[in-house]
Every structure is written in structure tokens, then in C-alpha cells.
Write the C-alpha cells for this entry.
Amino acid sequence: MINHDASNGNGNYRPTATLSRRAKKGQLNVIGISAGYHDSACTLLQDGVLVAAAQEERFSRVKNDKSLPVKAFLYCLQEGGITIADVDCVGYYEDPYLKLGRQVWMGFMPNLPPTRRDAILDRLSRPQPPQMIMDIMGYQGRLEVFDHHLSHAASSYYFSGFDEAAILTVDGVGDWATTTYGFGKGPDIQRFEQVDFPDSLGFFYSAITGYLGFEVNEGEYKVMGLAPYGEPEYADQIRKLVDVMSEGQYRLNMKYFGFLTEDRMYTQELIDLLGQPPREPESELNQFHMDVAKSAQVVLEEILLEKTQYLHSKYPSDNLCMAGGVALNVVANGRCLREGPFKQLFVQPAAGDAGGAVGAAALAHVRVTGEPPAVKRLEHVYFGPTNSVSDAYRFLKVSSAKFEDFRGKEDELINFTVDRLIDGKVVGWSQGRMEFGPRALGGRSILADPRRPEMRDRINALVKMREAFRPFAPAVLESAFQDHFALNHTSPFMLETCDVISEIDLPAITHIDGSARIQTVNGNANPRFAKLLEEFYRRTGCPILLNTSFNMRGEPIVCTPVDAVRCFNRSQIDLLVIEDFVLERSGIPAFWESLGHFARGAPTDAQRVVEHSVYTML
Amino acid sequence: MQRPPESLKSFADRIARAAASDEADLLVRMLRMAGLTGDFKGHGIAHFGADDRPTTVFASEPGVTPKQSRVIGIWERREENGTASFVRRIDMMETWHFWANVGRIEAKGSKLRVLFIGESVARGYLYDPSFTPAIALQMMLEKQYGKDQVEVIDLARTNLGYEIRELSLAALQLEPDIVVFFAGNNWEKKTSLPTFNDVARLEDAIAKEGMAGVKRVFDEYIERTGRTIVKEVLSEYQAGGIPIVWIIPEFNLAEWREPFTSAPYLPENGNREWIAAMKEARKALSDGDRVRAEQFGTRIVELDQGICAAGYYILAECRRLANDVDAQRTYLELARDAQSWDNSIMYIPKNYTIAQEVLREELPRYGAQVIDLPVLFKQYLNGEIPGNRLFLDYCHMTTEGIQIAMGYAASCVTRALKGVEQPWHTFVSDDVAPSPEIEAEASFLAAIHNAHRYQSYDMVHHFCSRAVKNSPHIADLMLYFIDLQAINKAPLRMSEAELEIFRLGSPLVHRYLFPNNDKRLDKVLLTAVANALEEAGIAARERLERRYREEHSTRNTETDMLHPYYYLSAGQPHEYEGLTWPLARVDYDPRYYRAYWPDSKFVFVGEAGLPVTFSLTCRLPKYSMDESNISVDCNGQPQGDLTLTKAWSSWDITVPGDVIRDGVNEIEIHWPIPQFRTAEALDEVITKLCQMKYPEYYPIYGEVHIFTASSVAHAAESPPELFEVAVSQAVA
């Protein structure tokens, strides 16, 4: 530290500032990054504790943003109270050269369209992510690169709370692998088998997703949601798409898949096989589409069940960890757990590529220290930016919107909100830290009374602007969930489905097959959300709320209070609760709408936007 | 074969590993650019550069020539009852505001049809839609021809560039009796991605001439493209027997100043001398030593070979002090033209000398009448250099400028169609002008426009005062604007202030302010606004000071001085701008602050007597020494030195309260002069061009990752003064 004296005896001003170099913070600061494909994200582990995690899309407002997560990185630094100078190691979630090898191999496909060949050459001629992390983020320290599925495996195993577990990762593709089998023991993760590109259960499901007119790499969960409306009438045909082989292997029957050469996932042969043309996006869904969805879901479940049995035969543990985009298929997961050999299942809540950032950070921590991260079992996913009450107040105060101020009156706020929920209002709920991963779990949620028959259609049509068939999920008090749902363990991350057994009629959250994808809520992880549920329970006898993500179709989930108000303004949500403040629709000035055409949307930089007609794998 | 052979997977991995070796990615890219890896023309790479004809925003049907196109700008041909009219396309609604607010262009009737084609200057930017050059021309011609005897078809488009070719050729379908062009300001350096030819040309030029070669290459492009367009357009009009009038635009030479940049990499360590000379020249000017300033100005231009505006501005100022108007004008024109090559600075439309010369040479070949505004304005101003009297900003004209230009246009039209000689001024009358209210609003919008393009306080204040003098009604708008900008907690479209502005109902505000404004601390602009209002007897300064204090004081909040809201008020545009590179820089270029000048300024709002603690994370750049000191000043007072390396380091700097003043304060970092490895840096320029990254033509002096200011920790020791509490309570 230098203290400069003001007097130097010759009458000239002398500096009086105190300047001191800040000592590096004592923690081991490890950053994890995933980027370049979809849902780029950044995480921070401090001494092995997960401190911050966020997807770039929440800051850039570009859905599925794939660009280097520069803003998420700055957020992680800020949340950790550190600077770039304090970062000890960056873990990157996939090996760019393995990925490049896979991309080059695709170039050996005969009759490859020139655009594809050019894109492969383009990949060969671009700086790779480690270089970009240095150039764009300015990071110049230790950088560790891990392969894609190892990052997935780590993202699940190290946060599962298991001391040992079998690990199954399944996704579309990262580098070469598309499915891996392994196990974790203490700090070590081992893989003993993998299925390589182009054989991929993720692509199998995505091909059906594309055929059914949904966005590839985004609409897979719609297929899962559509499936219960159908019957597995086409299961035999769809089984022809995948040859299930011995051990962990399977093989796609490539005559049905177009992704190696075409700008769509499937070929004419698939159309011929199913006997009907592919559904036009946004067109009406009929029984055929529902039956195809059901058939694909059944086939996926069969394969996953068989492969988990195989995994157990090789590593007979009670515990199974899963990650990768396919692990977000909660219906399949549930079946694997119910009918398979494992007794406990942990799925990384951000099972897709965003979660790869968590895994990469954990692996980097292990590589630096030789120890696993300090986290035992992940208890929540509130690792994103928090709403500042004072900032929210100052924003609302100078905005032209009218709002109610409940600061210091939490009980009144809860009562007020519950009143409105009981009245059938749809509530935007932005509280505390934002969730990491695709699910809104009471941090950035839209809430409603699940007992109202009209609520699902209303929210689908007026708020989410999405397909009417898609179900909503319930959030339920942890203390009461077993009275209403056939599940014998908690489900804090909305990653499991189970039958609804409630005596209360819950049409808004009960899927057509009588199931629901539930989130159990306790006061430790999210005190205010739990209070809201408790008060709703006290007043109605129903400890359950409909809970869906706070966003409109095609947009990322809201992050800041400003995002929340913008979404509120554009949607038909009745009430917005941001921290201690409540806005009602009547409080929104009419001129916000009249100025709508001046509103600047998210940047349209093509390099950030993710392709949804096909996985180009480039 | 449904999949590539499994046996090739290892080989694919081998190729990928080879690509990981040093510069293998660059090798592949260069082979592709050179067309040696196939003939695919995607991504603007292989062979794209063989033809550097600019792209168009108008060609809607592949294979259809502009003359056959169904589309003229935003209007589409519609056949009804045997006649073809052109109707505005709904699907182009997002670009309607670039054009005249005309829903339908009817088929040619009995009226004399005057086609008016041009850029934003022809649009009447900042007056449009309330008053435009086309409206003025219509009014002038009606006096000559009668009210229903003439129609001016306004095809002027804001931001019209080389697409004027397609627009003009398509517009032949409108069967004009005469065409008036008012264009040349947007004839720019190539703005598409570099091609193999571009890179090869630039590499050769840099090798032979250094950075001056880059300017030559781009100037040649402007000349070549301009000449081609004039030829292709005017030959068609001439062939159709349509008389042509072309107005050559002029520039606000007297008042407009290109935002400052340092010199790009210069040969033989010239950068070090350039920086020293610039500092000496400025000091000499400030000391009133014109001769010494001129010596250094001359040396600056020698060193940078005339590719920077800064040296010419020094020389122009010296000539102004010497009352040598002609030389001053020459230097100002050279300053305007100097950075025609530079993709890293904010785009400012201008009619380069080279474009003017193309027009002067080419137009007579097609029988065009030429309205040479640089010459005519000089005559009109009795030799004075044109400034804010005729211009609202760099090129957009005031009512007076529009009247002169359109007076000449009307005169030319009359000469061509009637054979009658009628002087321009006879067409000008008081009614060919906007209302005082519109004049006031346009002036205020000009103040905003200029301030957001880093112009001086004097220029910004000029337009604020002009606004207030034109119409007192503007005061409400200006006061709300203070609130809109100074209160940053609510984004645009959501603030109470914007609602109030909206309620004022000005069409010009709706057209220009709402879509274009950015939130900024706006020290220069808001100070000018407040002062202009105070000068008119309207209280505003206290409002501004209060807003700044309430919203931004370091007492209450940590200020992120790298946030654009603050950084854009630090007076160093080069560090923030540089966004004209065709690729979005976000995916390729550093996302942290880099200094392009040895002194980096940052601003925050403080309170006198209240210490401020700064958190700074910074490092020395690539070509710097391994270790060196930087010094930190606050409000011009030295605060101490820090020893940096090329690795990031974080620092806490607490500046005592006696250095801090009420309102906007400035903290400055003085970086060490780096080593200027020009050959290495320019070689890297070519590499980056091949990689489609922004080519770093300019030396970097320092890099900052985080720089914040806060007094929160000190605030408890220094409670706010009583009056401030009272103010807060009153506001609450």
C-alpha cells in the first residue's frame, strides 16, 4: 500500500490517494465454460463450492445463445467478488479437436453438398474456443479442456451427493461420443464404453421432433409432452430406426436420417416408413402426430431401459447419475428408475450443454486439487443473478408504471398474491436469484391456481403463446407432496414425473395420462416461494401451484426486473410480483404498447442464434 | 453409402490435430480465400472479391434487372384498371421511415413529373416528415408551373448508399420528365467482408506504402464504384431522353470535427513522435503559439502521411488564427477525407473530395446540369467556410441550406423543361420553410445528434440555444429530456420522462428521438441543454445537478465506469466505437476496454468532500514492456503510480474527498508508451483480415477489465449535507 503525502514542501500538489494492489482472494477460483453449440454458459466454483452459474442467453436475450458467454463470465466474477486476475483455472467443456475430427469425418460423406463441405473447411480455419477465451475474454491463465461427455458426467456425478455411482450420459453429440457408460468413485470418473457419432439417441429423438414440425434441439420436450395423447401405433416402424446391439451399443439406420447431408434430420425413407408427410410447423396436430410422438417415446424408453440395465450389469451400484440433453426426458428417466435396476437416480438439472460448464469447472477443480468439489448433493439451482430490492424499487419508481410497495410487509405481499391466485389470476413471480438450467423453480416463474380447468388453455394461449397440448408442471410443498403425487422421494428440480393421486381436482397440471412433472419446494431452498405455497395451502387446502417458466415463446426466461416487466407488458399475465413490489396490468401505461414498434429486441447476430431445422453438427 | 467409412475416423482426427498446430487454421483459411480448395462461393469468401460491385437492398427477384423490377424501394408495382401504380409494401414496414411517407405512387398523369432521388440529406433529415427538400422543391415549382401542374416524386432514402444504382434504374418505370439526384455522401469504403482480392491488394499496399496504402486502396474503391454507378445510371436516363440534374453535396467544414483517433501503426517508430507532436501542438494552441503549433501540425501530417484527421485540424486552426481562409478550408477538407479508410471509427456520411471529383468529371458527359454546392455555398457565404448556419450536423442541412439547394434545383428544372433562365433566389420565399416549432425541434434533435457523435460543447450548445430561440415550446421537451437521460434506472420506453415526452406529441420526436436515442450520462449535451434553458430564463441547472446526484452519486451506488452509459461521456469515442466492421465484433474481438491513446478517461458522479474508492483491474498490452508504471489522475490531480505487467492485476485506489467535486468527475489513467512493432502489427492486420477479424490498425496502450467507483464504504463517515436530505425528501 502506498500513502501519498499531500505536502512536499515546494508548494506543488502531491498525491494523497491510497493505492494498493489487491491480494488474490484466498479461494481457488475455477471457471467453467460451455459454448459454441447451444446454450452457452459460465459457472464459478470457489474452493469447490458452486457459487454462480448462468446461461448467456439470459443476459444477451438471444434464445439458446451459443456465443462465448462473456456476460455470464462477468456475472460469475461479480457474484464471486473476484476479478479476472483471481481466476486460477478455466475448464472448457469439450475438446475442440475431437469435435473437429468428427466434423472432418462428416466431410468424407460422398456427395456432400458444397455448403456442408465449405462449412467444414470453415470450422478448420477458425480459431478454436481456447484461443477465443484468451482473445475475447482476455483470460490468460491455466486452461483445462475436457471432453464433452466427461463434462456431462461430471456435472451430474459431482453434484449428486453419491460417493459412487454408475454414470450414463446421452445427448445428440458433442465431440465423438453420443452416449457414454461409466462410473464415479470418490474424485474419479471412469468411462468404459461409448457410442460414437453418428449413432445417437439424441438425433433419433430429434429426427422425430423435426418430422413432427417442432424445432430441432428445442422442441424435443414438446414431443415428450405430446406423447401421452397418443398410442404407440408406430412403434414397430420406429424401432427400425435404431438397431439395438449388444452391450451399450446401438446403431442408427442411416437411411432414415438426413442430418449428415441434408438440411433436415430425416429422409424421405422415414416419411415413407411412417406413411404421412411431415407436419408443417405451426399446423394442426392430429392423432397421427400424437401416435408418432408416443411411439418414439416408447422406443426411446425401451432403449434407455435396456442400456441402464446393461450399465448396471457392468457397474452394479444402487446409484445412477445421468446427464446430457436426453436426460431431460423426465418420462424416460422415471421409467428407468421404476423398472430398472438402480434405486436412486440423480439427473443434473441443467442436463444439456449449459450444464457442461458446471461439469468442466468440477473437473478442473479435481485436476487442480485432486479432490472432488465440496458440494455433496445439489440442493437448489438458484445460481443466477439476484434481484436487488433497491434497484427494483428505483427502476419502478422512475418508470411510468404504477406499483404497490410491500417492503417490510412480506406477509401482506404473500396474502395479496394468494388472494389474486385464488381469484384466478396469472402471476409473474420474479424473486431472488435466477435458476440455472431450463426449469423455472420459483425464482423466475409464472404461477397460477392449478385447480382451475381453464388455466392451462389460458396460460398457453395468452401468456406463453404456445401449443395447447403442452402440460404445465406443479410446484408442491415438500411437506405435503406425497398426499397428492405418487412419488416416494423429493423432486426439487422438476425432473421426475409421477401419477397424480390427489383428491383435489388439478386439471391445470395433470397431464392427459394422469401424470405430472413435479417440483417439491421447501423453505430452505426458497423461503418466499415456500411461504406462498403454505399460505395458498392454508387458504385453499391445496399445497400446489401451477409453475411454468417466466418467458414468452421464443424468448429466454427473464433475468432482471426490467426483463420481467417487459415480458409482463407483452403478455397477458395479470399480476407481476418482483421482490416486494406488485404491478397489475392496469398500472401499465398505454403508451408502452404504442411505442412497441420502437422497442429494440434482442440482437439478431446470426452467429449467436442456434439453428433449429437440423443439427448441422458444425 | 449412408455414412462415411468408420476407418476414416482416425484420419479425420489426424487432420483435426494438424489443424491444431500453429497457424494451420490460417493456412486453411488463406487457401479457401484464394479459391484453392474448391469453387464454393459461400460466406463471402472464395472468389467473392473478383467483382467488388456493392450489394443491393432492392433487388427482389433474382435474374431481374432493376429496370424490370416490380419494386422501387419500398413500393411495389400494382396493376389496376390497366394502369400501373406503385404501392408501399407492408412487409417492408420496418424500413418505411427511411423513405418519404407516401403510401402510393400513382401512374404518370398529366402533371410534370420530377423524380427526386438521394440520401438522408435529400430526405431532409431531422425535419422529415414535417419539412423536406422535396416539399420545398414542390412548392418552388408550383409557383412556376401552377399548383396542379407538377409533382415531385420523393425517392430519397436515409442511408442510401451505392444501392442508388438499383433504385434509380427501377425508378425509370415512373416515367419522369426530369430527374434530380442529390447524392454522394454515402459513397464509402467497401463495407462488405474482405475478399481474397481485397486482402491481396491490402497486403501489397501495406508492404509498399504502409498504412497510406490502405487509404489508397479504399479511395480507389470509392472512385471506381462511384464512377461505375454514375455511368450505369446516367447513361440510361440520357438514353431515355430524361434531363438530369445532380446536386453535389457539401459538408459542414467549419464546425464539424471528426472524433479524435490516434495514428495507426506508422513506420520507423513514428507513433512515439506523433503522440509527442500532438501533445505539443495542442499545448501550443492552448498557449496561443500558432507558429509552434503549425510546426508540430506539419510534422504530424508528415508522420501519418495524411491518413489521420487530427493533424489537419491543428493546421486548419492555425490557418484560421492567421485569417488564411483558403488554406483553412483546404486543411478542413483534407481532415474530412483523411480517414476514408478507417473501419474502426463511427460512420459519418460525407462527400469525399474524391467522390466530388468523380461527379464533376462524369456528370457533364451525360449532359447533366450540376449544382455544385461546395462552390455555390462558398459564393453564397462570400468565401466563408460553411458551418452551422447551413448545416444541422456533418452533412444534413438547415432550412437555409435546403432553400438554397432546392432553389438551384428549381432553377435547373425550369431551365431544362422550359428553357427559361430564372435565378435560384427567385424561387425562395419565407413560406418555403418549416414552422418555428418544427425548426426548434429539429434544432434540438440536431443537438442530440451532434452530442452523440462526440461534437464539442459549443456546437451542441449552439443548437440547444437555436431551439429555445426558435420556439419557447421546446423548453418542456428539453427539461423532460434531462430527466430521460439522467435517470438511468428505467430503460427507454419505460420511464416517466419518456411518457411525458410522448405526450408532447411531436412527430419529429417520434420519428428521431424514440428510435435513435441511447441512454447516456450525456454530460456535454445535458449541460448545454441546461445552460441554453437558463440563458432563456428557464431554471434547469439545479434539476440536472439533482438528477445526477440522486441517480449516480458514488455515495449511493457503485459506478461501472466501463458501462456505455458512463463511458460514452468520457470523450474517447475510439475506445467505444469501431463497430462498422462487417462482422459483429462480439464473437471475435476482445470484450474488455482497450486504450487507443496513452491517456484513458473515465467519468463518475461524486460529491465534494466524499472520498471515492476505485476498483481497477488492468494490464499492459501485448506490445508493451514486460513491466511498467501507469499513473492515475483524478480531476487533473495526480493520485499516484501503479506498477503493471502484462498479466491482469487488481487495484484499490482511494481518492480523498478534497479531490472530488460535486457532479461529474474525471479519472484518468496515463499508460506507458509501448514498443511500436509496426511491421509485426501490420503483418497481424493481414492475418486478421484473413480470419475475418477486425484488423487492429491502431496501437493499444493499455487494457482494463473492471473499473468501478464507489463511496458507499465512506458514506457513513460523511453524512449527506442537510439540503440534500431535504431534496431527497421533497422528491420522495
Residues 1-156+353-375 of chain A form a domain with the Nucleotidyltransferase; domain 5 fold (CATH 3.30.420.40).
